Amino acid sequence: MLLRKHEYTVLQTSITGGILANILFLLGVSIIAGCCRHYQNLNRTAAHLASSLLFLSATSLLIPTAAKLLQQSKGRDLLRQSRGVSIVLIVVYLCFVICEQWTSYGAFDEGSDGESDGESDGESDGESDGESDGEGKPPAVRPVSHNKKIKQEAPPESKKQDNSKNQDIDPHLHPITAILLLASGTALLYFNIEYAVESLETVNKSLNLTKAFIGLIIFPLANCDYAPFMLAYKGHLSQTVTQTVGKSIQTALFVMPCIVVIAWIWQLSEVTLVFDGFEVVSLFVAVLLLNVLMIDGRFHW
C-alpha cells in the first residue's frame, strides 16, 4: 500500500525498522524476561542458519548502497543490480523454506529450552564417587549424603516440569477455529494498515514528525507481535528466536525483494535496494551483534 501511494521513504524505513525492532527491541526484551534467573539454550543449527541468512540480506543492502554513496554505479545500473539481487534473495528464501520444512525438518525441530547452568552438579558428583585413586585399588565406598538423596529424587520433578512445558505449547484451538481467527485477524490488519497509510500526512503535519521517523520507529513498534515475549518468559526462548529472527528473515529475503519485483512490474524505477546509509549500517551492526550472541547457542540476560 505504501508502494501504491508512492511513499518510498516510509516504505524503505519501515522495512529496516521492522527488522531492527524484531532483532533489537523484541528479542532483547524477551531475553531479559526469559533469562533473568538462568541460561536458556538454543537450537544451534537453526540459530546459525538464521544469523547467516540475516547476514546475507544485510550484505545485499550494503553493496548497492555503498556503490551509490561511493559513486561506483548510477541510475540504470543500480536498478538492474537491485532487480537481479531481489530475484536471488527470493530464490534463497524459497530454498530456506524447503530446507526447514522438508529436507532437514528434524534438525530444525530439535531444541532445548530453559536449561539452567547448574544441571551438571549431580553428574559430576556421581562420577567422582566411581573414580579410582590411581593406584589400581577399587573405589572407596562413600556414604550417600542427604543432598544426594534429594538429587536422586529430582528426576520425577523434572519430568513434571517437562510435562508442564509440553502442556503449555499444546494447541488449545480446533484447526478450523484457528484458521478462521487467522483469516479474520489478517482482514482487520489490512484495514488497519490502510487507515495508517492514509493518516501519514496528518500525523506528519500535526505532530511535526518526519516520515523517516514514522517508518523507522512508529510503524515497526505498532506492528510488533508480543507473543514471543510470553514464550520467553515461560522458558521457550528457542521459539522466541524462531519467531523474531524468522520474521526478520522473511522481511529481508522475501518481502523486500518482492516489493522491488512488484515495482518492476508496475514500472516504478524509483524503488531499488539502495537504502539510507545510516539505516543500512545500523542493520548491519545489529546482525553482527546477533551473530555474536548466537555463537555459543545460549542466552543470558
TrEMBL record:
Which positions, given as ranges, span the membrane? Answer: 20-40, 46-63, 84-103, 172-191, 212-229, 249-266, 273-295
Q: Which UniProt keywords apply?
A: Ion transport, Membrane, Transmembrane, Transmembrane helix, Transport
Q: Where is this region: Disordered?
A: 110-168
Recorded source organism is Pochonia chlamydosporia 170
Basic and acidic residues bias locations: 150-168
Q: Name one GO molecular function term.
A: calcium:proton antiporter activity
Q: In what ranges is there compositional bias, type Acidic residues?
A: 110-133
Recorded coiled-coil stretches: none
Which top-level group of life is the source organism from? Answer: Eukaryota
* Entry-linked Pfam families: Na_Ca_ex (PF01699)
Q: How is this protein situated with respect to the membrane?
A: Multi-pass membrane protein
Q: What is this protein called?
A: Calcium/proton exchanger
Name any Gene Ontology BP term: intracellular calcium ion homeostasis
Subcellular location field:
Endomembrane system
Residues annotated as domain Sodium/calcium exchanger membrane region: 3-98, 178-301
Q: Which GO terms describe its cellular component?
A: endomembrane system; vacuolar membrane
Family, similarity comment: Belongs to the Ca(2+):cation antiporter (CaCA) (TC 2.A.19) family.
